[in-house]
C-alpha cells in the first residue's frame, strides 16, 4: 500500500517543505483543469462531473474495502 508522509522513515525521506510544494502544485494543477473547463463552457463543462466523481468514488471504494479487511491482509 502507498503511504503519504515526509521525513525520516518514509520512502524518499522528503522534507516537509518538499511535501508542501508537491501538494500545492498538484492541487493547483487540478484546480486549473477544472477552472479551464468552466471558463471554456460548452462540451468541456459537461464532462467535469466525471473527473470529480471518479476519484471520489475510487477513494470511497478503497476506504470501504480496507475497512472491511479485504485490502489489509486480515480477511479470510
UniProtKB/TrEMBL annotation:
The chain crosses the membrane at residues 16-41, 48-66. Its main location: membrane. It is found in: Membrane. GO terms for cellular component: membrane. The keyword Metal-binding does not apply. SUPFAM superfamilies: Aquaporin-like (SSF81338). It comes from the Bacteria. Keywords: Membrane, Transmembrane, Transmembrane helix. It is a multi-pass membrane protein. This is Aquaporin Z. It comes from Roseovarius litorisediminis. The lineage of its organism: Bacteria, Pseudomonadati, Pseudomonadota, Alphaproteobacteria, Rhodobacterales.
Amino acid at each position: 500500500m502507498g503511504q503519504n508522509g515526509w521525513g525520516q522513515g518514509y520512502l524518499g525521506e522528503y522534507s516537509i517543505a518538499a511535501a508542501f510544494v508537491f501538494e500545492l502544485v498538484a492541487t493547483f494543477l487540478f484546480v486549473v483543469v477544472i477552472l479551464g473547463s468552466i471558463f471554456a463552457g460548452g462540451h468541456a463543462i459537461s464532462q467535469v462531473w466525471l473527473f470529480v466523481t471518479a476519484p471520489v468514488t475510487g477513494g470511497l471504494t478503497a476506504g470501504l474495502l480496507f475497512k472491511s479487511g479485504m485490502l489489509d491482509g486480515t480477511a479470510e
